[in-house]
Amino acid sequence: MTSELILLFLYLGVIALRNAIDDPRRADRACGVLALTGVVNIPIIYFSVHWWNTLHQGSSVSLTKAPAMAAIMLTGMLRHVVRRMVLRHRRRRSRACARSSLERERGARVGRRAARKCAAQGSHERLLRDERLRLLRLERVRR
Q1: pLDDT at 81
Q2: What pLDDT is attached to residue 15?
Q3: d(CA 5, CA 115)
Q4: What is the secondary structure of 19-65 as a DSSP string?
């Protein structure tokens, strides 16, 4: 619990550091260094289950042993993971379609395969607007 609290403070520190530095490259470098120092805490969180077993419940899911949690909970967890992966894949594909339609608007040549995929998915107005805003922000940062 304490090690996760330390990880939370490191995360909040990264956010504060990024907002405190005006130059994006310097902010990225400083946040990267701080994030790398926070990575040291991750194995401590993971192995705390084994090191301090009087304070923590044992591992519920293991690659070498049978799961200690109920089968219904394990299937629910696995269904959630699969659903999350599917939704992430759909989001990436929709973002790529919005990007390709934005390129078409700008006059760039887009491949037939990408155009067919995007036409099959339908309208992506919100994603197209978000992609335009993201590109505008990138152009401002580069200036």
Answers
A1: 94
A2: 92
A3: 47
A4: HH-SSHHHHHHHHHHHHHHHHTHHHHHHHHHHHTTTTSPPPS--SSS
Cβ neighbours of 131 (radius 10 Å): 20
pLDDT value of residue 16: 93
Residue of 91, 104, 102, 109 lying closest to 128 (CA atoms)? 102
CB 97 within 8 A of CB 64: no
| CA–CA distance, 30 with 18 (Å, rounded to integer) | 8
User: Are 14 and 31 contacting, i.e. CB atoms less than 8 angstroms apart?
Assistant: yes
How many Cα atoms sit within 13 Å of 37 on the Cβ side? 11
**Per-residue pLDDT at 122:** 54
> What's the pLDDT at 59?
63
The residue extents of the domains of the chain are 1-58, 77-128
How far apart CA 87 and CA 82 sit, in angstroms, is 9
Task: Please report, for residues 69, 73, 79, the alpha-carbon distance to residue 83 in angstroms, rounded to integers and kept in the order given.
Answer: 20, 15, 6
Can you tell me the distance from the alpha carbon of 30 to that of 16, in angstroms, rounded to the nearest whole number? Answer: 11
pTM listed for this prediction: 0.40
Residues of the chain with pLDDT under 50: none
